[in-house]
Amino acid sequence: MENVVIIGSGCAGWTAALYTARASLNPLVVTGATPGGLLTTTSIVENFPGFPEGVDGTELMMKMQAQAERFGTRVQFGATVEAVDLSQRPFVVTIDGEKVETKSIIIATGAGHKHLDVPGEDLLEKKGVTYCATCDGALPMFRNQPLVVVGGGDSACEEATYLTRFGSTVYLVHRRDTLRASKVMAERALANPKLKPVWDSVVTDVLDVKAGKVTGVKLKNLKTGAESVLPCAGVFVAIGHYPNTQLFKGQIALDENGYVVRAKGSQTTVEGVFVAGDCSDHVYRQAITAAGMGCAAAIDAERYLGSLNQ
Ligand code: NAP
Questions:
Q1: Which segments of the chain have a pLDDT < 70?
Q2: Which residues participate in catalysis according to the annotation?
């Protein structure tokens, strides 16, 4: 019987593992198919405190893993949780076909970036295509270059506004002629002289795979059908995220967008099941905030397990 199974291996999962391991709970981490989570898909992480020169996302995750393992964390690398049964105590977690009983669970399954699903997008990821302006916007490859942000929500407006610090011009490509973003965010973005909206348009192709870097995007105006090429050095896709929470549907409360609801502190609506990171946070979504939530979930789990023994 496990004390705590941690599902997910991003910043939230490894930090939860570090804290529960140091509390002698002998945690088990199930990494999932993408060990290290979303941070491994970015290039250099320059906003994680303690790394003044920046740190490679994958390297940071490996360091977090090593730190958690140093204190006794056990890791099922590459393993996937296929099912959870939260209706009975102990809980049952099915890991690659094997049923494991556990007294508590920390959910740290993260979120995925929605993709445009157009040619060139995947091949040019990290070569100009990115899903996080806060992570990548300050990279030299984007400085004083025209940049494209895709989307019309708060994320797109926030990221486009942020990117005007670095890019020569930031084009906000949106598929309609009205922004979905909150009024204040939309007004701030549109008032920025370096930001130019491109209305009613979608990206149909990211160029140029042959060159091995982003040189522009092909656009299609949905109202007129006109096609054009917009030269740029970066494409920042900000069309939303999806939380990786399908596994828990119907067993704990999820909000209307599928994010895990925190009922009290880091606890979900099921006692003994805790949550941390992007699968429960659509507002901050930073490595450091996910790590902080992982710490909180570990402390809450430790207290919960302590209360079982009283
Ligand atoms: P969002 O509100 O769902 O907006 C996604 C945007 O992408 C929409 O404008 C949508 O167009 C567009 N889009 C979706 N799929 C597309 C596709 N395949 N091709 C082209 N465009 C596509 O997502 P978000 O901006 O990430 O925000 C998510 C949540 O986080 C919201 O609740 C938001 O308020 C919150 N948030 C808050 C802050 C803040 O308060 N500082 C910052 C960021 C996010 P349509 O408009 O046509 O649907």
A1: 41-43
A2: 132, 135-136
Cα(52) to ligand 1 centroid in Å equals: 31
How far is it, in rounded angstroms, from Cα 235 to Cα 258?
A: 27
Of the residues 198, 239, 283, which should be mutated to test ligand 1's pocket, given the most ligand atoms within 8 Å of the CB? 239
Q: How many CA atoms lie within 13 A of 282 on its CB side?
A: 21
CA of 26 to the centre of ligand 1 (A): 39
Compute, in angstroms, the gap from residue 157 CA to the centroid of ligand 1.
Answer: 9
Q: What is the pLDDT of residue 154?
A: 87
CATH of 2-112+241-308, one of 3.40.50.10890, 3.30.450.20, 3.20.20.70, 3.50.50.60: 3.50.50.60
Give pLDDT, residue 6: 98
**Cα–Cα distance measured from residue 41 to residue 304, given in angstroms and rounded to the nearest whole number:** 34
Atom of ligand 1 nearest to the CA of 202: 20
pTM (two decimals):
0.76
Predicted pLDDT of residue 38:
78
Distance CA 126, CA 22 (A): 35
Homologous superfamily of 115-237 in CATH?
FAD/NAD(P)-binding domain (3.50.50.60)
